[in-house]
Design brief:
Keywords: Membrane, Transmembrane, Transmembrane helix. This is YycH protein. It holds the Pfam family YycH. It contains 11 helices and 25 strands. Strands 11, 12, 13, 14, 15, 16, 17, 18, 19, 20, 21, 23, 24 and 25 form a 14-stranded mixed sheet that branches. Among the domains are: about 55-200, no CATH class; about 220-310 and about 325-345, 2-Layer Sandwich (TATA-Binding Protein), CATH 3.30.310. It is globular. The protein has helices spanning about 1-30, 35-45, 55-60, 85-95, 110-115, 130-135, 180-185, 225-230, 280-295, 365-375, 420-425, and strands at about 65-70, 75-80, 100-105, 120-130, 145-150, 160-165, 170-175, 190-200, 200-205, 210-215, 215-220, 240, 245-250, 255-260, 265-270, 300-305, 310-315, 320-325, 330-335, 340-345, 350-355, 360-365, 385-395, 400-415, 415-420. The longest helix is centred in the N-terminal third of the chain and has 31 residues, at about 1-30. By secondary structure, the protein is α+β, with helices and mostly antiparallel strands. The relative contact order is 0.12.
Length: about 450
Amino acid sequence: MKFSDKCQRIVLRISLSVMVLLSIILSGYIWGSDTRFSRMEQDSNQPAIKKNVGQKSLREIYTPTQVFYYRDKQLYQAYDAKRNLTLEFSKFTKKLEGHKINKIKSNSTFYRQLLHDEKYFQLTFPDQITISLFLPRANKYLDGEFNRIFVSTKDKKYLYLGDDRNNTLYRVYANVSFKNLYKHIQKAASQIPISLEKLKDGFCVSYNKDQQMAIYSYLTYKETDAYFVYKLLDSGNPTQRNADDYIAYYNGIYQRLVAYKKTHNYEFVDYQQNKIPNTTTKILIDSLFYVRKICLNEPDLRFFDASNNTISYQKFVEEYPVFLPEDNNVRAKVTFTRSCMQINFNSLDLRIPIPTNGAKKELQATDKIIDKLLQAGYKKSYLEKIIIGYKVCHDTNKTSNLIDLIPTYYIKINGRWHSLDAWLNNNYEVHIPASQQGGISNGF
């Protein structure tokens, strides 16, 4: 009997020890779980999100999109489908020493001379970015902005960063050689003669002759609403409201995702993120963080436009941006305000290029396009930018997953991008504030 009691006590002690040990292990797992802890922490005090995107991601997204060089006193736009010239340049520049940078005296005359200097080739961004984004090791002029890079063809030790809006120039010491890149530019398969046209936001590409542009076809894919609900709403059980044109998903009072039924457009609003980033560079980086959060990971997604704390991204095909139908024509747009952060995006993903019969569309020379806009009543001072882009068109003779990319002129007026036909055929109101009339305004 004593032996039996002793065994029972031993078994009981062992059982209690095992239960205590198991309790400690489970507690450690629960409290150590990143997901569990982050959700509890978010529910209690809603801390700021740490927004890391990585230098590789930044250089792939914030990269030049066009290359120009002079040959026999004529400026050419160079492109090679087999060799990504702008990405090659970005790989070289990650080695630049950012501490050797100086702002130099410049005016419109000096800037124009550099634009027409045959001893430099040029690379341009779709809009202004900052020096600290381009040169992470820079220790001054961190929020200086530029959209054009001048690189010597003679292997000099400096390159120049230029801002078309105000003729500002920065000189950067280049501890790398661009000789091989320049040779590739000279041998690029596509060489289009161009000139530069001064508009409100800077210098745009002006095509001197009518252009025959290729039409492309793509097989597309669209993610479901459930995918974006999972990615964006911090809730496993959001409330839902169904309307005629949209479905709205809510995570309490802080987050809302609206899915529009026929256009594949989405709008996400987060009222917890109610601070505007305090520097231009941080605005650019934080916007990319949110674009990554919705997993828009196409290899050709690029920074496209920046204005009034709003950053836009587009997919690029053959160095030209792809515009979606309707007014919400960008792939993703992130807006920061003092009340919320808002993302507008589209789920249409260009997945697989489809072989075509070589169809092309003729686009008129740029000066003819400007004449059409002037005849329609738009003043030249209204024109901020003119570019060639690809318009997404659904062919009624094809399945719904196939689209055509039709080359089209796009014009930015009053901060809005529309196709040439849209500006000519619609009665868009153009409001130019008195403080901006006759001046240059864009960026941040």
